[in-house]
Amino acid sequence: MSRMSLPYFEENTEPLASRIATGLHKIGLAMKQQAWQQANEEGLSATQGQILAALATHGALTGSELSQRLGVTLPTISDSVRVLVEKTLVTKSPDPRHPRASLLTPTKKGAQLGARARSWPEFMAAAVADLRAEEQRAFFSGVVKMIRSLQDQGLIPVSGMCVTCVHFRPNVRPGATPHHCALVDAPLATEQVRLDCAEHELAAEAPRRELWEQFMRPV
Ligand code: SF4
């Protein structure tokens, strides 16, 4: 038997799930490094950049809403906001919805920086664009399922995703666009479901579970 035919890799390869996790870890490091580098070029920390990007996307938010959306603790948000206010990138005003909370609004310069910060993951989009269409669809479906699992474990904020939204109607028809958004009354395909929708409204816990079960049950 030649050396090549030995089942070396059958005996010495970790399960695929472990190797995917290793790959994601490497991608995560690259994203973190890029975010730091690009934030530094703008004279910001990565969290300050994320805050400006969120405000540029969603409009004025409170510190608690930012904390929920970004999955960052409230004290960290408060520290970053204090610096952003000092740099005149963000202003604070009373929140008409909650008398004791402040609404954070980006200034013109803050909104410009936020719009630039929003494009920081573009290097990743360019790498994903190298995948074939069917690879992208499978990857996206896997990413949605992974995010949902991490949300269940409390490791990712439960916001922005169709599959946790009161307006989402999963698998209501056969065909290429099986889902429906009741807010805009429009059908959507699985690869069109949103991960960071500004109009998202969080469903309660029990309906969220039902939405997910229905999403996983194609018609
Ligand atoms: S409002 Fe946004 S998150 Fe909710 S179902 Fe419609 S597209 Fe999805």
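^ iron/sulfur cluster complex. The chain has nine helices and six strands. Residues 132-215 form one domain.
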